Fold this protein.
Amino acid sequence: MQKINLNALSFTGKSIKKLIFNAMLWLSLACTALLFSPVNFLASINLAEFSEQHANLIGLGLIIGAAYLLTQILNYFLDEAIGYLSDKRSVEVIEEKVKLLDPTERALLREFFLQGETILTLPEAEQAVKSLSKAGILEHLGNQKHYAIQGSTADFKISMRAREYLNRQVLRFPVGEPSAEEMKNLIKARPQFINSFVTPRKHAA
């Protein structure tokens, strides 16, 4: 019920903003037409006298409407610029982190491919999990569960931005189909906490 109410409030907020925007747009257009249309045209539709008598109010309406529309346009471009810079910074952080992965972080990322899963349940308190999440390589999906001894866990996946940087070379996967010895070494290198939360599968990426 709470989720429905929040969605309803969000929809109502968007509707009000749209209504205000449309009202200001029409106000600006109407005031512009009354101020700058030829007198003969205004006289033909019986608005010449109205336009002359209320010129100050019409001008004020144009200023208010145009100022509102201008601020909305500036806000749009500002949001776009902030989003672009934020995305660029996120990619830079991921690139730097990929170059500096420690063995535990690399082994944890390999686990997604060894398991053949896009989502894994991981302990939130583990340093490797926290570090990869902070860098934007792991994405927190929620579904938290709390345990008295092990602490809390949650679902994680590799973020879309990070996927293009995680190839076999970065994750130290053997070229081609791994041999029995290579597979044994990969399993041996798994983080110790993995066995408590996921069940290993018998294939590699």
Remarks:
- Strands lie at 120-123, 138-147, 151-158.
- DSSP finds nine helices and three strands in the chain.
- Residues 199-205 have pLDDT under 50 and may be disordered.
